[in-house]
Amino acid sequence: MSQSENTRPASPAPVVTRFAPSPTGYLHIGGARTALFNWIYARGQGGKFLLRIEDTDRDRSTPEATAAILKGLAWLGLDWDGEAVSQFAGRDRHAQVAQEMLARGGAYKCFATQSEIETFREAARAEGKSTLYQSPWRDADPASHPDAPYVIRLRAPRDGTTVIDDQVQGAVTFRNDQLDDMVCLRSDGTPTYMLAVVVDDHDMGVTHVIRGDDHLTNAARQVQIYNAMGWDVPVFAHIPLIHGPDGKKLSKRHGAVGLEEYQAMGYPAAGMRNYLTRLGWSHGDDEFFTDEQAREWFDLGGIGRAPARLDFKKLENLCGQHIAASEDAQLLPEIEAYLTAANLPALSKMQRDGLARALYCLKERAKTFPELLEKARFILTSRPLDVDEKAQKALDPVSRGILKELTPQLQNANWSRNDLEATVATVAEAHGVGLGKLAGPLRAALSGRTVTPSVFDMMLTLGRDETLARLTDQAA
To answer: Long-range pairs for 343-350 at CB < 8 Å and ≥24 separation?
Structure first.
């Protein structure tokens, strides 16, 4: 081996990210964006995206919530590598690490009771001192240890600082005298969340921890566990939370906050991915982009520090662009999934076939699936049509007379756009009206509504027999 080959630096470790939700409720839109950032970054770097269910809170964790998380991620299109990991299942491993820290001197046994801890804090408050608990057992001689229940506490440094070199927030410094000797293992032998997270991230090989900035203080405490075990510290990127349009923390008063609500409202998954990626991250002035572009462009440096604001108009605009850009064969099953999510009747085979024929003229102007289906009403309904009040006004006696004359003319027309347009134009001209003047009654007769796709698109989609039947119904 040559000298140059021998000294060549090793290739950087493959990127491994993770999403670690707690199954105690629905998947929040902010959590969905965190998952998305982790997924895009891992996929763009050719790495792995892992899923861990942090189900250590046995009182609040439910199988239903776990199922909802998995379903929400699947709808959003975020695939993970391997099986989802249960944090609770690793509790023995977490306890083992606590014992290892104890053996290495990075942790100690604390026999203080809750009553003693509270007495300490009350005295500290009375004296105007810090209420961070200073355990008298930190440096106690093991020979003095009683035969009593104990917790295992981290032996955190008390001097100096802990610095988080965060990819979003920059260098964030914490004074060590403001961080306590946190409990890692409870007296009943169960691990705390702070220990479990570090052990799981280390064992799963996580290289980048991308999560909400509400975890920033946790990072300082977790780094101390990494150091106590002599483990490599992952790259941290703490992203700002999502706020409502009014700049306040996102809540139910702002509208939908659970991911499943967005599917039930009829937003396409591709549009949601685009919008959530752009929510707090930017690549120049680009607003609309594909998954491929997102994976190519996404970097941690493009994430802003300020909280992002949810904007439903921008969401709808992007979703409309994605609907228009989608292949018809891709849209149809997603529309059917929307109907299921919204607890709406499924499409019959006839409706599905009709919708498949009509998508080409529906998707250009729909921002959501409900909008698209409203425009598709002409192909989803059957005779006799339910003609609404506005459409009835377009079907006055004069208009009905023109439609009666038009119907046999169409009977003999070649069923092509050019021939249909020419036939309608000829009848309109004979009555001294423009083509636009006749479009209103035609629209009403073919759909029962006044807002529809082009009348010629409807004719082509409905076919000759159905078109003539509907005109005959209204011309009578």
So the answer is: 343/264, 347/380
Residues 6+ positions from 285 with CB-CB distance below 8 Å: none
β-bridge partners, 16: 48
Q: What is the rounded average pLDDT of the residues 211-237? A: 96
What is the pTM for the complete model shown? 0.91
DSSP strands (E only) in 94-230: 107-110, 151-154, 161-166, 170-175, 183-185, 208-212
d(C-alpha 57, C-alpha 372), whole Å: 43
For 24, phi then psi, to 5°, come to -115, 5
Catalytic annotation present for 390: no
DSSP state of 166: E
Question: What are the tens digits of pLDDT across the range 188-206?
Answer: 999 999 999 999 999 999 9
- pLDDT one-digit tens code per residue, 11-20: 468 999 999 9
Paired residues of 302 in beta bridges: none
Does residue 421 contact residue 459 with C-beta atoms inside 8 Å?
no
What are the distances in angstroms from CA 381 to CA 317, 387, 460, 470, 476? 28, 11, 16, 11, 20
Q: Which of 252, 313, 367, 393 is catalytic?
A: 252
172 neighbors 166 (Cβ within 8 angstroms): yes
Q: At 476, is the pLDDT very low, low, confident or very high (cuts 50, 70, 90)?
A: low
Question: What pLDDT score does 244 carry?
Answer: 87
Residue 260 in tokens: 């499943």
Q: Are 43 and 299 in contact (CB under 8 A)?
A: no
